[in-house]
Specification:
Blueprint (H helix, E strand, L loop, with lengths): L1 H15 L3 E4 L2 E9 L3 E12 L2 E10 L9 E6 L2 E3 L3 E6 L4 H39 L5 H9 L3 H47 L5 E11 L3 E12 L2 E11 L4 E11 L6 E11 L12 E5 L8 H20 L11 E5 L4 E3 L6 E19 L3 E11 L9 E7 L2 E8 L7 E8 L3 E15 L5 E14 L5 E8 L1 E3 L5 E6 L5 E2 L7 E8 L4 E13 L4 E2 L2
Parallel strand pairs: 1-4, 2-12, 10-18, 13-24, 16-23
Antiparallel strand pairs: 2-3, 3-9, 4-8, 5-9, 6-8, 7-8, 10-11, 11-16, 12-14, 12-15, 13-29, 16-17, 17-20, 18-19, 21-22, 22-28, 23-27, 25-28, 26-27
Keywords: Coiled coil, Signal
InterPro entries: CHP02231, DUF4139, DUF4140
Length: 533
């Protein structure tokens, strides 16, 4: 009976006994950065626990912590933990107290500014009074005063006093006006701080985890959570060696964070996904169509309609769909060694790696857009993992060419990298015919005939493949007929799925040249107007 009583009493005491709170001193050990300015933070901690139950408390976590992302695990120790509870606690002085302080300071400066205004106004009144004295005496009385004994000396003394007084008054006025201006700047600065203060009080996050320790001892813990704000951007450097026929691709990452806590001596991993395309100029399909038929109208109404048409055109252009790529892959880059990233949002450049790529060197020209040739290198990314899109710096035989953007690059994907204008490739693009007319026996049609000549000359002392990309008009309406003509058939039609884009692959020896003639004939019903030409 006594044993049962003691057992029940111990159970009651355990139920009502307060849980012990164990403040956990943790440090950041690992960070993983993800797209969308999100980072996964992992903290590690060792804590000595007494036998029994209590709460593990992680304090002073950043306010950028994402609610619901907190996880706590025991990596070593005879401890069981329960659910995670997060609370946000205000820190620092209350914004309302700070607002009152700023408002009181602004009012004090405004009083000082008003005093400066008053001193400037008083000096201005004194100047007006002195200027009035300078006008006395006047007329005949002035002449009599000067004729009296000592009149000239009195006048000279009076004039000297007026001048000195005027200069002193103007100096006081300038000092007061400068003081008022300086005070106004201080007031504006404090007013901006007051406007930016907002109504929310700064916060820190507190994580509490209940535990049950089966005996006293040390426990090893990990705390992980996600925060918003940190970011990383890929950086690339491509170095083309034309003599060796290779491209060296150097990769790095620019990392910055302002979470409120420094990442000291951490392992850093960079994750990426969804690369997108877009950098080098592309030849889009060249569509032509009939212009809309518009009935004649009064001049004023026509001007209003033209303004309306301009607005519609701008809206259509803004809503043009952007090119995207299906990027069903992701990669994680682990930075070698441990790094430190301060919380001041200052970017830090971290190397990822370097890779040599075999390349086929050639040139490309788009003479309808730019009558020059670009030196290019065709290569394939054969590294372990995809490359996300990012800024790229280009070098050709050690010379800096410029910067651009590298699209997302999947393993095994062939890519043409541009390395600036090639001055040793001469491109001449000239129109040779531009005629309009009519044709047809039964149905009269309007015709448009245009021809061009393209000549490419290789001034290198070596052979070089050159690709000429030309676009032809493509009709959207079946009543518009487009008949292309070439002196030499193109090697590729509808390049990369773009209708009307043709490619000629020219293998040019040193100091060799090739000439191409091409053009088109467009016919359409008479009385209609073409759009897009």
């Amino acid at each position: 009976m006594h044993y049962l009583y003691r057992t029940l009493l111990f159970g009651v005491v355990c139920l009502v006994a307060p849980a012990l709170a164990a403040d956990v001193d943790s440090r950041i050990d690992a960070v993983t950065l993800y797209p969308g300015n999100v980072a996964e933070i992992e903290r590690v901690a060792s804590v000595d626990l007494q036998d029994g139950r209590g709460d593990l408390v992680f304090s002073h976590l950043p306010a950028s912590l994402i609610d619901g992302s907190v996880r706590v695990a025991v990596t070593d120790g005879n401890v069981r933990i329960g659910g995670v509870e997060t609370t946000r606690e205000p820190v620092g002085e209350s914004p309302r107290e700070r607002e009152r302080e700023l408002q009181n300071r602004i009012e004090e400066l405004q009083r000082q500014q008003q005093d400066a205004f008053d001193r400037a106004a008083a000096a201005g009144n004194e100047i007006t009074f002195i200027e009035g004295l300078a006008g006395l005496p006047q007329g005949e009385k002035a002449a009599e005063a000067l004729m009296n004994d000592g009149g000239a000396e009195n006048w000279a003394s009076l004039w000297e006093r007026i001048g000195n007084g005027s200069r002193a008054a103007r100096e006081r006025q300038r000092v007061a006006e400068r003081a008022a201006a300086d005070l106004n700047k201080q007031i504006e600065t404090l007013q901006q701080k007051l406007n930016q203060l907002g109504r929310s009080r700064p916060e820190m996050v507190r994580v509490s985890v209940p535990y049950r320790a089966n005996g006293a001892g040390r426990a090893e813990l990990t705390l992980s959570y996600r925060v918003r704000g940190p970011s990383w951007q890929p950086r690339y450097e491509t170095r083309l060696d034309t003599s060796a026929g290779k491209v060296t691709l150097n990769r790095s990452a620019r990392v910055s964070q302002a979470t409120g806590e420094d990442w000291n001596d951490v392992t850093l991993a960079l994750s990426t996904s969804q690369p997108v395309h877009g950098e080098q100029p592309q030849l889009d399909p060249w569509w032509i169509d009939f212009a809309p038929e518009v009935e004649p109208m009064p001049r004023a109404d026509k001007a209003v309609m033209m303004e309306s048409m301009d607005g519609v055109g701008a809206a259509q252009q803004a809503e043009a769909p952007a090119q995207t790529v299906n990027a069903e892959f992701a990669a994680t880059y682990l930075i070698d060694g441990r790094v430190t990233i301060a919380a001041g949002n200052e970017p830090r450049e971290l190397p990822i790696g370097s890779h040599d790529l075999t390349a086929v060197i050639g040139a490309e020209t788009l003479p309808q857009i730019d009558p020059r040739a670009w030196l290019v290198a065709e290569t394939t990314w054969d590294g372990a993992g995809p490359l996300p899109p990012g800024r790229i710096a280009r070098f050709r035989d050690g010379a800096y060419i410029g910067e651009g953007r590298l699209d997302g690059w999947a393993p095994g994907e062939e890519r043409t990298l541009a390395f600036g204008i090639d001055p040793s490739i001469e491109v001449s693009f000239k129109p040779t015919k531009d005629e309009t007319g009519k044709s047809g026996w039964v149905t009269s049609k309007s015709t448009l005939v245009r021809d061009y000549t393209l000549e490419v000359i290789n001034h290198h002392d070596r052979s070089l493949p050159v690709t000429a990309l030309i676009r032809m008009p493509v009709a959207k309406n079946e009543d518009i007929e487009v008949e292309p003509n070439y002196s030499v058939e193109p090697d590729e039609k509808d390049v990369d799925g773009d209708k009307g884009v043709m490619a000629w692959h020219l293998d040019l020896d040193d100091n060799d040249s090739r000439r191409l003639r091409f053009g088109y004939r467009i016919s359409y019903p008479e009385g209609r107007e073409l759009r897009g030409m």
